[in-house]
């Protein structure tokens, strides 16, 4: 009964932007959406964290090791998964090759855009190094990297050097490109690790304010089509669940929801998402020359987790790659001595049956499922497919 209520809640959330419409207005809106022409995006520029990092951290620091990348690429390629990420499926759907990481200098092409996302990235500034689980590539740095990318590539088209023109977007294509953003999960994780020492309502407002500044900077640099993901159900990440941590496995009543996710962590994600959605609405009112689509990744991912077996997966709390038992956490691809035995944190036999790849990130199969359910507009406000998201709609 609980899962049915959650499903109804998801459907109500998807219809929020229509609640004030009369029936006739709703029909007209749906009809106009169907008649929108497809957007001929020449490029895609992505900003985010490890959920969409296609090689930034691997190029800048230590490269990924096996079994990462085993399913599709057959080798580690800097992605925190066994295969492709949601951004890869989005790029494919739009007719682009897989996005090259901006700082990856080997075998890259930027003709159809670039990926500035980096693992461990946050919206707000950090005071942690890579060795402490941090990264220098916070959102503010990513947008400045884009600023440099646009300025430097633009010079190639005024210098008469034809050789570079095949490798980079043309100056006029930056305004016609789509800008995707998927970041914020690590900001919430930082607040959780802070042990609730600060009022999260206040913290979330500050995070969203930082995000707003960077979106407005991108707009000032010519961005006009934004595809903005909210953050997923962080309380459902398997590594944070009691089943992989507590000894014995006991929790206080009300600590977990009906799907075994940590309720207070998901509530924090919802607070952030609500503020993020309000920001998107405000920016729409401010920028009449831009389109901003808010994508409810929380609901898409939570629906998959809630209906894991129905969608062909094993239990959502199961982890494909890694060793997570009795409070010990040995992450995917690593070795360690645990209880006197050498353990290698290898992968499961069939990753396509799992939602969680390494306890934090999703498998290619799960990423594919999520991508299919967001690119058609089912979880978007306004509810239009990504191929038509360049149109400003009400």
TrEMBL record:
**Secretion signal span:** 1-23
* Gene3D superfamilies (alphabetical): SGNH hydrolase (3.40.50.1110)
Keyword Signal attributed: yes
Provide the alphabetized UniProt keywords.
Glycoprotein, Hydrolase, Signal
Annotated GO molecular function terms are: hydrolase activity, acting on ester bonds
InterPro entries in the record: GDSL, SGNH_hydro_sf, SGNH_plant_lipase-like
Q: Which family would the database say this protein is a member of?
A: Belongs to the 'GDSL' lipolytic enzyme family.
Question: Which protein is depicted?
Answer: Alpha-L-fucosidase
The organism of origin for this protein:
Lupinus luteus
């Amino acid at each position: 009964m609980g899962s049915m209520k959650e499903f109804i809640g998801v459907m109500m959330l998807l219809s929020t932007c229509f609640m004030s419409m009369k029936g006739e207005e709703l029909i007209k809106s749906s009809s106009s959406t169907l008649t929108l022409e497809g957007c001929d995006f020449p490029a895609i520029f992505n900003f985010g964290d490890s959920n969409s990092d296609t090689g930034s951290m691997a190029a800048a620091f230590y490269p990924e090791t096996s079994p990462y990348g085993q399913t599709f690429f057959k080798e580690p390629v800097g992605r925190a998964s066994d295969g492709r990420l949601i951004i890869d499926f989005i790029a494919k759907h739009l007719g682009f090759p897989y996005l090259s990481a901006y700082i990856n200098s080997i075998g890259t092409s930027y003709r159809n855009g670039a990926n500035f996302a980096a693992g461990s990235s946050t919206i707000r500034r950090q005071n942690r190094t890579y060795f402490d689980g941090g990264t220098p590539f916070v959102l503010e740095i990513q947008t400045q990297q884009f600023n440099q990318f646009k300025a430097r590539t633009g010079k190639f088209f005024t210098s008469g050097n034809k050789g570079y023109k095949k490798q980079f977007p043309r100056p006029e294509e930056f305004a016609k490109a789509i800008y995707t953003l998927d970041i914020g999960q690590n900001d919430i994780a930082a607040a959780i690790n802070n042990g609730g020492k600060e009022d999260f309502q206040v913290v979330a407002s500050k995070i969203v304010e930082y995000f707003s500044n960077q979106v407005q900077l991108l707009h000032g640099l010519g961005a006009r089509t934004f595809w903005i993901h909210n953050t997923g159900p962080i309380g459902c990440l398997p590594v944070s669940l009691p089943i992989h941590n507590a000894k014995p496995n006991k929790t206080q009543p009300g600590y977990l929801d009906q799907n075994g996710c940590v309720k207070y962590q998901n509530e924090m994600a919802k607070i952030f998402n609500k503020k993020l959605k309000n920001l998107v609405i405000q920016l729409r009112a401010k920028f009449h020359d831009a389109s901003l689509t808010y994508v409810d990744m929380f609901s898409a991912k939570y629906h998959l987790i809630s209906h894991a077996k129905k969608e062909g997966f094993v239990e959502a709390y199961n982890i494909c790659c890694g060793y997570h038992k009795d409070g010990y956490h040995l992450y995917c691809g690593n070795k360690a001595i645990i209880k006197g035995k050498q353990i290698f944190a290898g992968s499961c036999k069939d990753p396509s049956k799992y939602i969680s790849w390494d306890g934090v990130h999703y498998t290619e199969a799960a990423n594919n499922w999520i991508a299919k359910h967001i690119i058609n507009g089912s979880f978007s406000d306004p509810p239009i497919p990504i191929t038509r998201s360049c149109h400003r709609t009400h």
